[in-house]
Design a protein that fits this description.
Number of helices: 10
Largest sheet: 6 strands, mixed
Order of helices and strands: EEHHEHEEEEHEHEEHEEHEEEHEHHE
Length: about 375
């Protein structure tokens, strides 16, 4: 219930805050950034046909921006992992060097885990190449870059001259395809001490991309508190939910969903207070929440003939069970094994006790609980 998957521009991910407005920074952040994917040539040979020296240089600024923003979201003492499936140093060590320049509180650390994975140390020097009319052209320094190409081949793509940064780059890890009969990867693990870099606010909003056919994306539908969108008192009475934390349930707004055929939400999820608050404020924070929390209730079909509009979801039944005082049936091992075996069973397959209890409940979700012993 404490997780949320979001979709958006990684350079603009907002800083999460608790209900009192205090910043909440992360213990660990993985920045697996967009890259040229030249390390995947074994499984996708077509990458070679599209490869050029300009690809890595064009991605460098985006990768560095994402990495810097990721570092701002890590708490002091936390860990940042920067990774690509590229072996181009312009996308790898050059980005790490820029990150170390931007935030001196970061230190590249050696990660001894998985010693069976063969790795090579990071590079401290490399050539910056461009494609000219007569073949490859090498730029030895930023001053060699033509004026029209300075935006692509910016100074940060060149090897660092600061010895503090150079010594740290060797702690980066390069996984070469032929060393492990696998794909190629670059991984750098950084530890953050006490950040000395202020978080940079931005008012830039990424352009909105509509579906080609005009359909609304599900993550564009805002989340609302379930208790504000449905009759939770009716559900509480039906399931006997005593002291249930209804304030932690959120759902997508039927009124905001252009594709919805009904005003009631299809799925209701339970999240922690921070998760539920994040979902509710997602649009304000310019975040698209793809999924969050645990699905706890799901809307029933009109043909089900149930007294309430929602059934319990298998995903969240463990979270609801401690509060459930109705529609729960205790059964012995024989009945429980039949339920676990799956398939379709008629009432005659179960004990008389279970048949009688289920028959008295009527249509709707039922939770079967294995009796002790």
């Amino acid at each position: 219930p404490c997780w949320a998957a979001t979709h958006g521009d990684a350079r603009l991910i907002p800083t999460p805050r608790d209900p009192d407005g205090r910043k909440l920074l992360y213990d660990k952040v993985l920045a697996d950034v967009p890259c040229s994917s030249d390390g995947t040539l074994r499984k996708t040979p077509g990458v070679l046909d599209r490869w050029s020296t300009a690809t890595g240089a064009s991605l460098h600024a985006l990768q560095a921006s994402i990495a810097v923003r990721a570092a701002q979201l890590v708490k002091p003492g936390g860990t940042l992992v920067y990774s690509t499936c590229s072996l181009n140093p312009v996308e790898d060590e050059a980005v790490v060097a820029e990150l170390l320049r931007a935030d001196p509180s970061l230190t590249v650390i050696e990660d001894p885990r998985a010693p069976q994975l063969v790795r090579r140390p990071g590079l401290t020097t490399w050539k910056v190449l461009d494609e000219g009319d007569d073949g490859l052209v090498e730029y030895a320094s930023p001053g060699d870059v033509p004026e029209g190409k300075m935006r692509r081949f910016r100074p940060s793509v060149f090897p660092p001259t600061d010895s503090r940064i150079q010594t740290q780059l060797t702690r980066c890890m390069r996984f070469l395809p032929h060393d492990a009969d696998a794909g190629g990867f670059f991984v750098c693990v950084l530890r953050k001490e006490g950040s000395t870099v202020a978080e940079t606010a931005t008012t830039e909003v990424p352009p909105k991309k509509d579906k080609p056919d005009g359909r609304q994306l599900s993550e564009d539908v805002k989340y609302v508190r379930f208790r504000d969108a449905a009759d939770t008192a009716k559900l509480a009475a039906f399931f006997g939910l005593e002291n249930f934390p209804w304030e932690l349930l959120v759902c997508r707004s039927g009124a905001d969903n252009a594709m919805a055929t009904q005003q009631s939400a299809k799925k209701v999820v339970l999240g922690t207070p921070a998760c539920a608050a994040l979902c509710e404020r997602a649009k304000q924070l310019r975040l698209r929440v793809v999924h969050a929390g645990v699905i706890t209730f799901a809307r029933t079909s009109e043909s089900a003939g149930c007294a309430v509009d929602y059934r319990l979801s298998q995903d969240g039944v463990d979270l609801v069970l401690p509060f459930l005082t109705k529609r729960r049936v205790a059964c012995g091992r024989g009945d429980f094994e039949k339920l676990l075996a799956g398939g379709s069973h008629g009432p005659e397959a179960f004990s008389e006790k279970v048949r009688a209890e289920v028959a008295a409940l009527g249509a709707g979700s039922v939770v079967f609980v294995l009796e002790d012993g």
